[in-house]
Each structure stands twice: as structure tokens, then as C-alpha cells.
Amino acid sequence: MQIFGVSEASFYCQAFTQELGDAELSISTFKRAHIPRSTIIKEGTPLFQEYRACSLRNVERSLFFAVSHYRRCLDCLLSSSSPWAQVTMYYGSFFAAKSLLGMFGCTIFDHHVVDVRRSFPSKQELQVRRIGNRVGEVRTTYTGSHRKFWDLFYRTVIPLRPLVGPSLSYALVPIANNPVWQIEQRNAVNYDMYSALQSAHHFKQAFSSSTFPSSLPGPIGTQYGLLEALIQIAFIFANQFSLITDGLSPLATSGTRGKIINTLVYSEKAPRVLSKTKKRRLTK
After folding, report:
1. pLDDT confidence of residue 278
2. How far apart are CA 114 and CA 116, in angstroms?
3. What 8-state DSSP symbol labels residue 18?
4. Is 108 helix (H, G, I), strand (E, B) or coil?
5. pTM of the full structure
């Protein structure tokens, strides 16, 4: 896949306009309704303007939920829920990665991608291409939507590695040269209860809040580091590009992205409802 350069991505992000209708909805819904399976989306056309609005709203929503998962994984740092903490970290990384790609003009769908065909500001063009093995298609040897995503993500963001510095660039490189490491680790603790129990056991033995995050053992510690780094990278570019959309308006009618995140993610407290549950019936 091809991405914008930094200056071209900045132009793309700063040109956001509040397009109405389907451009306010899901980017997958917009693609199915308005974009042929193979086409060029040219700047200056209504389709480009609407798609850009929809894609940048999706970027900001993805960034919001990346931070939300980052915050909520901390609530799961108990031996009984540590496997779910790791799953939560995974999805935070996934959303941060989607947000990062979107700012540079790329969206990965289940069977297609939208990527950059022409970068020059005021004459930008995006292209819709199928994921497959034919000439002109975007190729990957992996199956499954998440495996495809991570393989394409790591190959696409190679030009961004020198731009974020050595303290963060490791998050743009596959762990152990395995682009699907994150999804494999997620699946292990999400679907295999033996693996989940082993993970909880290792967490119980190793974790200490006083030495967090270094006390996070094994894959959960690696996943947490990736999550933090990917979110930081996404914020670096979102701020550099002055990305501002109305994508979070259903949650808050006013306020900056930072204020909305601080209010709804970091400041809002979880409801104290345990006493209203049937916990006594579920422990015998």
C-alpha cells in the first residue's frame, strides 16, 4: 500500500469539512454504499470530499477508543482478568494503528484497501484495490481480517519509522519478525482457557503495582508497551497535522479532543453496581 508523505498527509487532514449524510456514518457503510470495488477517488469531486470527511472522522473515533482501551485495561490488572487486560490492550493497539494509517490516506477493509495513488496537494487521488494475488491487487500471504491488517500495516508504515525516533519506532516493527504476533497472542488468551489460566497464573506470580509496568510478565508486558507507543505515535501525527473533526460529537457537543478524552476516559468513574448483581448466586 502507498501512503502520503508527511506534508501531503497534513494537507489531507487539515482539509476536513463537515460533510453530512452518509459521510457521518461508518466508513465501511460509506464504502459499500458509494465506492465501487475498483475505482479512483479524485480530489475536487464530491466523492473525494465525502470520503475524506468520513475517513478522518473514523481516524478520530479510532484514536478515542484506542485511548479508552488503554485506560480500561488498567482496571483489569487482576489475576482473574489479566487475560482480558491483554485482549483490551490488543484492541487499543489495533485502533491506534487504524487511526495512524487513516491520517496517511489508507484504510484496510476485509477484502479491499483504500490507499494513495497520487499525493500532490489539491490533486490528490486515492485508489480502491482488492486484497489478493492478482496483478494490481494488494498482496498478503495471510488469511483472516486481523492477520491481513497487521501484515499490511507493518509493510506500509516503514517510511514512518525514522520520523518517530528510536524510543517509539520499535512499535512499527513486527515483534520477533512476526507481523501477526499480536493477534496470535490475543487469540491464545481469548479463546484457549488453558492458555488464559496460565497467563493469569504468571501474572499473579509476577505483577506488582509498585514496579508497574515492568512487572507485567511476558506477552502482556510486550503488548502494553506496544499499545502505549502506538497511541503516542498516533497523537504525534494527529497534533502535527492539526486534525480536528466532529467525529466525537455524539459523545460531546463541544470541547477539544483532549478535553473530551480527559472527561470521558480518564475522569469518568466506573459505576459502583456490584451490590446490585447476583454475585452470591454465581459463586456456589
Report:
1. 87
2. 7
3. -
4. strand
5. 0.96
CA–CA separation, 97 and 8 (whole Å): 19
Query: Which DSSP letter does residue 52 get?
Result: H
Estimate the crossing angle of helix 193-206 against helix 82-103, to 10 degrees.
100
What's the number of domains the chain is made of?
1
The one-character DSSP state at 17 is -
Q: What is the mean pLDDT of each run of 10 residues along the chain (284 residues)?
A: 98 97 97 93 98 98 98 97 98 98 97 97 97 91 96 98 96 98 98 98 98 98 98 98 96 89 94 88 81
Do 103 and 237 meet the contact criterion of CB atoms below 8 Å apart?
Answer: yes
Provide the 8-state DSSP code for 107: E
Q: Which among 86, 198, 93 is positioned nearest to 146, based on CA atoms?
A: 93
Q: Specify the residue for cell string 487486560.
A: 85
276 falls within a domain:
no
Task: Please name the residues in contact with 169: beta carbons below 8 A apart, sequence gap of 6 or more.
Answer: 161, 162
105 touches 4 (CB < 8 A): yes
Within-domain flag for 14: yes
Domain that includes residue 254, residue range: 6-258
Flag whether 113 is in a domain. yes
**Residue 42 host element (H or E):** strand 40-42
Which helix or strand (DSSP H or E) is residue 98 part of? helix 82-103
Residue 9 · residue 156 · CB < 8 Å:
no
- Extract the runs of DSSP E, i.e. beta strands, from 50-165: 107-108, 112-118, 125-130
DSSP conformational letter for 213 = T
pLDDT digits (tens, 9 = 90+) for 125-184: 999 999 998 888 999 999 999 999 999 999 999 999 999 999 999 999 999 999 999 999
Asked whether residue 243 is assigned to any structural domain, the reply reads: yes
Alpha carbon dihedral 9, 11, 13, 15, in 10-degree steps, equals -160
pLDDT at 79: 97
Q: What is the length of the chain? A: 284
